[in-house]
Amino acid sequence: MKVSIQSKILLLSLSCTLISTLSLGILSTIFISRTTQRNSMQYMNDQASAEAAKLNYMFESHEKYMMAAAAGVLSQIKEDSTFLTDETKLHTNIEGIQERLHSTIYNLSGTKSVYVRFNPQIVDSNEGILLVRANPDDQFKPYKLTNILQFSPTDMEHVGWYYKPILSGSPIWLPPYYNKNYNSYIISYVIPMFLNNKEIGVAGIDIDFELLSKQLSQVRIMTSGFAFLEDNEGLVVYHPTLPAGLTFKPEDDQVKLTYPLQNGMKLIMVVPTVEINAQRDKHIKQSIIFILLLLCFTTAISIFFSRTITKSLKKLTAEAKKMITGDMNADFNINQNDEIGDLAKSFTAAKFHITQYMKQMQGLAFQDSLTGVRNKMAYDNYLSDLDQRIQTNDIKSYAIVVLDLNNLKEINDTYGHENGNEYLINSCKLICQVFTHSPIFRIGGDEFIAILTGEDLKQSHNLLKKLREGMVATKNAAFPWKHISIAYGIEIAESAKDTTIAETFNKADKNMYKNKRAIKLAEQGQPAQDEKPR
């Protein structure tokens, strides 16, 4: 069965359009998927980090406040040896401390109570300070003191706030507990006070855990993500739905983020995976719709073009085949003031963008990611081009400079790879500053190549002198990785056609090793001479 050229052109056009569009769709979908998911995760991390920072700021503020208060009390006791023994002075001093606490406690948010209690073996067990507020907006008022001696030291709900810090011997955050003295669920930060290894008492501050839980219950990440608290053993302290003391295990369709807090607890953020992927799915759906519309549109155009003059279509088809096979010399210059002319312009634009993209990708492939100069792949490609230019007499003479960084391994082993990388970057900067008009390649971990032609070739002796001066200028650098030491070797091919590039390189490499040995001898105190270009 004979197939018309018009049908063949239509089939080819549709095939090319389908392949190109589907490729674009797949690539764009992958890109959109990764980008949107990464953005969603970053958003989630940022929000979770911000909530953790708020809590840590609250805990840190309470710590600093209590440290200052405890230091003030201990300072008074040190200055007055009768502080605790003189009953009149004790009452006066307690009133003064209470007044200071009362006037400064309003600087903190979320505080339930603040207290200073003294060793009941030294003073009356009812002596001390306890300021409590019933609600967050109420004023702090003196509260009836607990008789410490009436309860067992193991009674956490009544006197744990006193005995645990004393036994610990250092400031301590107590895990959330129910305080039966004034019937509130709290978190306590308590500082034990000792003077000359003698137990004086404690100074502490309580945070309203119910208020804290209420704040966390209002945290929403994305649509239904929530926050809760765990203790340092991984047990739930607060959860919107689970009781305290259980272990939370995220479902397969949930993402869990953990942030350590100042008081030893952990802030946990949980978000359904479907919400993290929601934005991605939305963009993918839009992308698919766009690709389908693009397919429909290009198909309609292809059908229309197939009914026009076949000569122009044949040319377009032939040129399109070139571009598909990677030949960017395809020519779509058809000067027709009609749809075929527009299609030719579209192909030209597509060719331009693909060419630009290929150049961009080639640039990334040929670039060393650490130093920014050209890499080994670019070097091999350049040598191929250099050889062609030599054969066509475009290049009649050139020089190869082999540069090898000294002491890189010692810097890596002694000061770490980060400083080793900085040493590589600093050395590369000096090389680039010297050989400004010549291509520089990093062909190994510590080995660089410079190809000199033109003016740089004429000035090779001066450039190497400039390189040596640059190294000398770093000799007294404060850090070893800023002290640049480079062994170099140069070989000039006066008549490029009379020798191979490989031979020129080998000679330059040998000269470099001579220079490296000379540098080592100089470092050992033996006289050494600089290698001069031949």
What's this, in brief?
With 534 residues, the protein is α+β, with helices and mostly antiparallel strands. It contains 14 helices and 14 strands. The C terminus is likely disordered.
Question: Explain this structure to me?
Answer:
It is a single chain. The protein has 534 residues and is α+β, with helices and mostly antiparallel strands. It has 14 helices and 14 strands. Helix 1 (5-79) crosses helix 7. The two termini are 75 Å apart. A hairpin with a 5-residue loop joins strand 7 and strand 8 (236-238). It is 51% helix and 17% strand. The model is unreliable at 530-534 (pLDDT under 50).
Q: Strand portion, in percent? A: 15-25%
Distance between the termini: 75 Å
Please tally the helical runs, counting DSSP H or I stretches of 4 or more residues: 14
Which H/E pattern describes the elements?
HHEEEHEEEHEEEEHHHHHEHHEEHHEH
- Poorly predicted spans: 530-534
Radius of gyration: 39 Å
How would you sum up the global shape?
A: flat
Q: What is the tally of beta strands?
A: 14
Query: For the largest beta sheet, what order do the strands appear in spatially?
Result: 3-2-1-6-5-4
Question: Which range best describes the helical content: under 10%, 10-25%, 25-40%, 40-55%, 55-70% or over 70%?
Answer: 40-55%
* Class computed from helices, strands and strand pairing: alpha+beta
How would a crystallographer describe the biggest sheet? 6 strands, antiparallel
Instruction: Report mean pLDDT, rounded to a whole number.
Output: 86
